[in-house]
Inverse folding.
């Protein structure tokens, strides 16, 4: 089981700024792998599906970036997802624009 978390802010004026790259990545994953339609759940927009026979969840927290832990904790506890099965996508102003970093 995997959980993809895309961080961002849910306001219309934040939609196309760098801070919302996490939302855009989750949207791309949803499209590429034909995950379910987004549904409001766990204080976010949740999609589910399978990638290479592995169950996946993808969420865009609607709690604003600084409070996204509230949404994520509820989801982890409900589905009993381990921390090592979580991949978080977010911007980082310390990383040059157009570059990525994995931890």
């Amino acid at each position: 089981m995997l959980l993809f978390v895309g961080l961002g802010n849910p306001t219309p004026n934040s939609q196309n700024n760098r801070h919302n790259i996490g939302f855009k990545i989750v949207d791309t994953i949803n499209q590429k792998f034909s995950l379910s339609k987004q549904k409001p759940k766990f204080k976010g927009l949740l999609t589910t599906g399978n990638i290479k026979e592995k169950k996946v969840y993808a969420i865009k927290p609607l709690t604003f970036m600084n409070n996204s832990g509230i949404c994520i904790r509820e989801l982890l506890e409900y589905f009993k997802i381990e921390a090592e099965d979580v991949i978080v996508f977010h911007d980082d102003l310390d990383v040059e624009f157009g570059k990525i970093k994995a931890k």
Remarks:
- The longest strand covers residues 44-51.
